[in-house]
Amino acid sequence: MNTDRIDSTSLGTAKTDTLRQVLLDLIVEYAYVEGDFLLSSGAKSSYYINCKEVTLRAEGALALGRLLFQILPSDTIAVAGLTLGADPMVSAVSVVSAYEGKPIPALIIRKKPKGHGTKAYIEGPSLASGAKIVVLEDVVTTGGSALTAVERLQTAGYEVTQILSLVDREQGGKELYQSKGIDFQALFSIREIQEY
């Protein structure tokens, strides 16, 4: 990573282009690895992207939180995502939203319901029925993980307006979301990362 580009204290005021470049540098340096991998979808791949290597770093969380907050629809009531990949993302966007004076809560969707108490799938503040929620995902491949989050939110009575991702592997996720009538946008495509 080019550490001369910006110091971490400047990320709070950096322009969009700078934030994108910092995030791309972090992804390439820490998250992208080539080799032989089995993906959660069951497919084999010659590369793997572990975005938690970026989203759990202070600089990565701040950069992605600011970038994602900027592109949220204005009527967004909350951000949500399937645990574990989306956990740092929804937290980062929620914290940034508070600093921007437009606080948006974060919801975390469990893969299995809690085994005690309310046995809930969704953790976070209760929202009004019909609340518009944007689902966040670190890496989209076939789209299954984020769609699970969408379905759980819809079952709870919420409306999912969009899915935002850090990286799109361009392997069918976007098309799946379109077939369900859900907008999709990624900060980076796999082509951008591999070309860089």
UniProtKB/TrEMBL annotation:
Assigned EC number: 2.4.2.10
Enzyme class: transferase
Reaction it catalyzes: orotidine 5'-phosphate + diphosphate = orotate + 5-phospho-alpha-D-ribose 1-diphosphate
Pathway: Pyrimidine metabolism; UMP biosynthesis via de novo pathway; UMP from orotate: step 1/2
Known cofactor(s): Mg(2+)
Binding site for 5-phospho-alpha-D-ribose 1-diphosphate: 110-111, 114, 116, 137-145
Biological processes annotated in GO: 'de novo' UMP biosynthetic process; pyrimidine nucleobase biosynthetic process
Residue ranges of every copy of the Phosphoribosyltransferase domain listed in the record: 118-177
Keyword Transferase found: yes
Chain segments annotated as coiled-coil in the UniProt record: none
Annotated positions binding orotate: 141, 169
NCBIfam families: pyrE
Annotated family: Belongs to the purine/pyrimidine phosphoribosyltransferase family. PyrE subfamily.
Cited function: Catalyzes the transfer of a ribosyl phosphate group from 5-phosphoribose 1-diphosphate to orotate, leading to the formation of orotidine monophosphate (OMP).
Protein name: Orotate phosphoribosyltransferase
